[in-house]
Amino acid sequence: METAKILIVEDETLVAQDIKYRLIKMGYSTLYVSSNGEDAIQQAKKFQPDLILMDIILAQGMDGVEAVKQIREFLNTPIIYLTASSDTDTLTRAKETSPSGFILKPFQTRELQIAIELTLHKNETEKEILKKEKWLSATLKSIGEGVIASDNTDIVFFINPTAQKLTGWNESEALGKKLLEIIHIVDTSSKNNTKNEAIVEKNLRSDIPSNGILIGKNGNKTQVTVAAKSVMGSNGEQLGVVLMIRDLENSDS
């Protein structure tokens, strides 16, 4: 990603110029250099770099860690810290800013190049994943069926507008609740009209949708078809559950 914009924050002029020269040799041409934290913040706002190489110890004003904390307030740019040495407390503070890595001075050109290329590649990959997640979220929010997703502890982390309408739980109320706290379903195929656990477990075991009566938070009753599907990880572990609810009373099909 040779077109990436890189901000170099280094208070020693010769060191800063050396880093800039090495980056130019690597093929990076859109480079900005800053010698202190305050100026680095302003340059980050102005140029929106794709990567920041931040010296932790700066001679004047705030240190690199404090500068990164303020930059994080408006820009989620990956950070690679540069350091010759630092005390434990400073390193702990640096780790709290979630940097992409640390490079110990003096460093070899190849070491710097690998760190930069890996960081930029990881950042681009994460952007693509986030983009796909946003598309998926928008799709799930727009479909006519209710969708509720919970993690492997049954805590709800997604509920689309249709599910909110059917259950009577809005998003802010539902997120963080147990799945069976917001889903109350009577299985009409059961002679005992078994609720909740039985109908959800039945769907998880068979992957076959079941008809039932959904009892909303406000007491409203809706005839629905519900299907629950376990989401499994690559190692066979259960990551969570996705619940699909179709309103049979207002369905087109």
Written account of the structure:
The chain is of the alpha/beta class and 253 residues long. It is built from 9 helices and 11 strands. The strands form 2 sheets. A 6-stranded antiparallel β-sheet has the order 7-6-11-10-9-8. A 5-stranded parallel β-sheet has the order 2-1-3-4-5, with helices on both faces. The longest helix is centred in the middle third of the chain and has 34 residues, at 109-142.
Structural class: alpha/beta
Number of structural domains: 2
The dominant shape is elongated
Q: Roughly how many Å apart are the termini?
A: 49 Å
If classified by CATH, what would the architecture of the largest domain be? 3-Layer(aba) Sandwich
CATH superfamily of the largest domain: Response regulator
Estimate the mean pLDDT confidence: 85
Helical content, roughly?
25-40%
Beta content comes to 15-25%
Strand and helix map with partners:
Blueprint: E1 6-9, H1 13-26, E2 31-34, H2 37-47, E3 51-55, H3 64-72, E4 79-83, H4 88-95, E5 101-104, H5 109-142, E6 146-151, E7 156-159, H6 161-167, H7 171-174, H8 179-182, E8 185-187, H9 197-206, E9 210-215, E10 221-232, E11 238-247
Parallel strand pairs: 1-2, 1-3, 3-4, 4-5
Antiparallel strand pairs: 6-7, 6-11, 8-9, 9-10, 10-11
Helix pairs in contact: 2-3
